[in-house]
Description:
213 residues, 10 helices
Amino acid sequence: MVSTDRLLAFAAMSSLLIVIPGPSVLFVIGRALAQGRRAALTTVAGNTLGGYVLVVAVALGVGAVVERSVLVFTTLKLLGAAYLVYLGVKAFRQRGSLREAFAGDAPAAHGGLRTLAEGFAVGVANPKTIVFFAAVLPQFVDRAAGHVTLQMLELGLVFNVIAIVSDSAWGLVAATTRGWFAGSPRRLSMVGGTGGLAMIGLGVTVAVTGRKD
């Protein structure tokens, strides 16, 4: 079991990443605007399943290595932090993409299973989440307590619970406030730009904090 203080710290770090509009959030927003609340929430469920597949993959593939090698852990952390900064810069420079998600062509409506599968595909291929799990999950594991893989799975579950709440909120808000956002392209660009800056800040935080043992 992960200690309460580590769990709370990880939940706080996860929240910083999750609220930033990324591929999964933009996909949920697109579904909400085109097909309504049900499609958005189904997409969120698919994203969450895909995200937990990433947790399992990282826990099984990275956990054992990190448990034995401080050098590998530090390398993963710094590479992950650098990539988060890169994604943040890219998101800031392309902040108009959120506006395009609102104004783009609406995808055709289809069945719930297909919507779930598409959400899963986006969730399991989300680079922001992959980097976060590989670079951040190991920082909150207590190696002295053992069961490193189980600890990472527990932390990943916390991440996905926060994600499903946050992404659902994005979808519901998008479905009910389309007119307000669509009326001002500047508002949408501001949301995208703020998300990019937040991701840069998160990358820097990952680089300078965490376990050093």
